[in-house]
């Protein structure tokens, strides 16, 4: 070959390389175009001025990392699905709060009683009964009734609007707007002195809505511009793993799971944390199997999952998912779960269509930890950060 031939081949190689680079850049750009826009985040470290544009998790299985038979991936195959753009956290409560009022037996009944004007003993008893039926709990109900009666003596009960104002203020005080409800998602510094993703463990009884909640919280975080990894540690129910994979796929979030049914959930949880750190994710959310609080070995298993997840860095949050319709039974669950794994926040699901909003107060009192999210429907974005004022206004709206 002549020198000219070599020059021609070199030129062709350069053109080919440039073509490949342009193609890869084009694919990445079009993928980013499918992703949610940056939003102002209500969470610490959320998307904002500092975070800038960043790559999202890959759509196909990231390589390796299959300790304990666990692997990560969305199962999306070769063709990249169009990613959904989840609703930002800030607008959700406003959109969904009508569902609380619609279920509003509480507001309607209270307003009907108060509007009678001069309240008699049987009216007071009816108010008390209404609050108890809304699962406010005995202690908070007694407190509220005492304040209400005292104020009624001062203000007189011929002005229903004044008493309603007192009722609103008292309910708000009980719901406690001062509680810190932000999800703790700042990075944690591990024993190795390195920054690790915030890991969040999600627990609760069967059917409370854990898997759905993990998927929904992932969407909230993605909408806020965070990189998330999910851990499918509900290895007991094969459908739960598939369910979580679908949640992940829809927003381009990798899901760490095991190929083996009945695999050790602690191993899957550990692998999720490891994968999250390797990917440089912000948050790792781990789903667990539903368990009855009276099954001691299953409660011990939760403790083990948390310990194993904490090997490199402490678990940031343990969220207890409670079905709001289970009423006082939920309180017992809350106590036992809290003893097993130190619950740091509560997610109340199925508050849509339930007149049991008082459980917010009861469960916060019982555990001393805040309700952080409320589930208000089966739609993918029907989970909202809890807003104390909005909540009280909605349940009183009737
Ligand atoms: N209406 C309504 N339904 C909900 C809400 N949250 C969850 N659900 C429904 O509750 C059902 C159970 O949800 P899952 O997420 O599968 O419950 P789980 O706790 O993971 O179940 P196990 O793994 O069996 O313990 C599903 O049909 C969900 O759609 C909510 O806020 N409102």
From TrEMBL:
A Pfam entry, by short name: SRP54_N
Chief location: membrane
Transmembrane segments: 6-27
Membrane topology according to the record: Peripheral membrane protein
SUPFAM superfamilies with a match to the protein in the record: Domain of the SRP/SRP receptor G-proteins, P-loop containing nucleoside triphosphate hydrolases
EC code(s) of this entry: 3.6.5.4
Region (Disordered): 31-82
Compartment(s) where it occurs, according to its Swiss-Prot or TrEMBL record: Cell membrane; Cytoplasm
Entry keywords, A to Z: Cell membrane, Cytoplasm, GTP-binding, Hydrolase, Membrane, Nucleotide-binding, Receptor, Transmembrane, Transmembrane helix
PROSITE patterns: SRP54 (PS00300)
Composition bias, Gly residues: 64-76
Signal peptide interval: none
Residue sites binding GTP per the record: 204-211, 287-291, 349-352
Catalytic activity line of the entry: GTP + H2O = GDP + phosphate + H(+)
GO MF entries: GTP binding; GTPase activity; signal recognition particle binding
Free-text function comment from the UniProt entry: Involved in targeting and insertion of nascent membrane proteins into the cytoplasmic membrane. Acts as a receptor for the complex formed by the signal recognition particle (SRP) and the ribosome-nascent chain (RNC).
Quaternary data: Part of the signal recognition particle protein translocation system, which is composed of SRP and FtsY.
Protein name as it appears in the record: Signal recognition particle receptor FtsY
Provenance organism: Bowdeniella nasicola
